Each structure stands twice: as C-alpha cells, then as structure tokens.
Amino acid sequence: MAGVYDQLPLEGMPRRLYSCTPSRLNAWLDCRRRYRFTYLDRPQPSKGPGWAHNSVGASVHNALAAWWREPYERRTPLTAAILLTNGWITEGFRDADQSAQWLGRARDLVSGYVGTLDPSDDPVGVERTVATRTKIIAVSGRIDRLDRRGDELVVVDYKTGRRPLSQDDARSSLALAIYAIAASRMLRTPCHSVELHHLPTGEIIEWRHTEESLARHLGRAEEVGVEAATADERYREVMGAPGPVRARSSGAASGRTSSGTTSAPASTAAGNSGAGTAGNGGPGATGGSVGERPQVGPPAMSAELDAVFAPNPGPICGWCDFRRHCPEGQAAAPERRPWDGLAE
Ligand code: SF4
C-alpha cells in the first residue's frame, strides 16, 4: 500500500487523512498486533507459508477476471477452465496430487459459474479499484465485479470458501458498503446493492443498503480510522516512520496472489479481547528458514507500544500468518497446516 497519510488542508489547518483499505480497517478490528505486523513493522516480519485455500481463491478470482477480458466469442465455460488451469497457483498444497485434485474442482467451479452468466452483459468494471474520502479517511479498494442493473450499480464479490454464507455477511460487510459508496461517487450512479456470489454452492446472497445504512458503515470506518491513525502516530513517534511496504509475490499469474494475512477459511472474527503484553521476540533475524527466504522477526517493542497494539488471541490465530511471532496466538490456537483450510 502507498503512503499512510495524505495531507488535506481543512479550514486553514493541515489535516491528516488516514489512508486505508477495508482490509486495513478490518485488521485493526480483528487484532491490533497483526495490524502492526502487517502495516507498520518494516521490514515486515516473516509470514508463514502460503495457504492452499488462498491459492484456490486467488486462482479462481484471477480466472474470472481474465474471462471478462476475453473477446465476447471466447467467453465460454471452456475458456474459463483454460484460464484457471493456466493461472493455477500451487502454493500451500500438501503435494502435487492434492493440487491436481483441487485444480479439477476449481475448474468445475469457474466453468459452472460462467455458464450462469450472460457473456454479452459486460460489467461496468472487473477488479476495479475505487476510492473515496471523507474529512477523516481516504479509503480505496478493489471490487471483484461491478455490474449495472437498470439505473443502478451492483457490487459483486466472489466467495470460494467452504463456509456457507448468510445475508448477514453481505449486510455487515464494511468492505462491500464502502465499495458501494465509492463506486457510486466515482461513477455518479446510485449503488445500494451488494452481492456475495458463493461459487461452491452457486448461491447469490444479496443485500440492499439504504442511504442510512451506507452512512453508518462509513461512519464506522471513520471511527476505526481515527483509532488506527492515533495508534499509527504513536508508533511513528516511538519507532520512526515505517519504511516502504514491500510487495510480496507468489506464483500468481496476475494481480491477485495467494498471499493473505489472516484468512481463516471458515472466517470468524477473533473472539476475546486482547490481553497480555509479552514480548514479540527480538529484532532482526529469528533464524530458521522456509525455503530460501530469510526470516525476519518483529522489532523490539516497548510495553507501552505493545499495549497499543495488543494481541487479540482466539481461534483465528491458527490461521494468522504471523503466529510464529506471537506467543499469545500460539497458546490460543493450534498450528494449522497450509492445506488445512481446504474443504475435503
Ligand atoms: S496470532 Fe492471533 S493474537 Fe497473534 S498477531 Fe496473529 S491474530 Fe493477533
């Protein structure tokens, strides 16, 4: 992500805008220590190995995005299967057999899904970045697909996880609400509907926001932004400015990679409130290796800063990429194997 703050003159005074994505805001809400590892500590502490379920998700998203970029006559289920195969990400699987088995499943998912689409009905946007700002936050993110239905836009989000989805997932999603607001403002077109397209079941979960419910989500985003910005400021005062964020790469053929930070396949928010201020290990290399990658530990942290960025241990810790650096997380949940998030 780019620089954390922008400057916006407001009433003659410089005012810092908190620049964020929905993922960043959700990271703050889920676990402040994970937020710090993800967005502030530089170099970023080493993550664990990639997750196979993330590889499946990224491969499917990439194939569906590429499908819409094909000329109309090639928008067929077979093309979707070919795109999926050509961009298949193998990271995190137990072995080649498991990867091949899931490639077959994912191929069926994408070809079956595009079979339900009208290839002539071009979306307004695919993997479209949208952004908006208030007096407090500048928020941006990427929408899987933006449709036009009648006079309105509809935000479409693809889901590939094993957990069945409910309307509450669509209603309560901060990300989807912010995408709707940003898309509406950028394209000057009303946008109240958000949809989760759950490929494994073929279900489409829709929620139609009101202006009031969208405003509530944006207000919530601002509240979170103020909290996180205040914590960021304190981090910078104590630790100095974070360095540039390093891009991570995996085997992805295009934009989306299998890398995640915490992506529990049955995604539950971390449960209990934060406790404990145990150290995060010393600065610099922690030794050991995953492949050839050098291992980086988090910087030494004062008790005060560690409290600002308190851990929030719970079941989700088993899926946290930074669990290795977090004693509380290790105590809270067992280590997961990279392929444990796959629905067998
Ligand atoms: S292991 Fe759990 S408590 Fe520790 S950083 Fe990750 S999510 Fe937070």
TL;DR?
By secondary structure, the chain is α/β, with parallel strands linked by helices. The chain has helices at residues 22-30, 32-39, 52-69, 77-86, 96-114, 167-172, 174-187, 211-239, 303-308, 327-332, and strands at 5-10, 13-20, 125-133, 137-149, 152-159, 191-198, 203-208. Strands 1, 2, 3, 4, 5, 6 and 7 form a seven-stranded mixed β-sheet that branches.
Question: What this model shows, in words?
Answer:
By secondary structure, this protein is an alpha/beta fold. The protein has a domain at 5-46 and 262-332. The chain is 36% helix and 17% strand. It has helices at 22-30, 32-39, 52-69, 77-86, 96-114, 167-172, 174-187, 211-239, 303-308, 327-332; strands spanning 5-10, 13-20, 125-133, 137-149, 152-159, 191-198, 203-208. Strands 1, 2, 3, 4, 5, 6 and 7 form a seven-stranded mixed β-sheet that branches. A hairpin with a 2-residue loop joins strand 1 (5-10) and strand 2. The longest helix has 29 residues, at 211-239. The protein is globular and about 60 Å long. It starts with a strand and ends in a 12-residue tail after the last helix. Residues 1-10, 245-254 and 266-290 have low confidence and may be disordered. Bound molecules: iron/sulfur cluster. Iron/sulfur cluster (SF4) is lined by residues 31, 33-34, 262, 270, 311-313, 316-317, 320, 322-323, 326, 328-329.
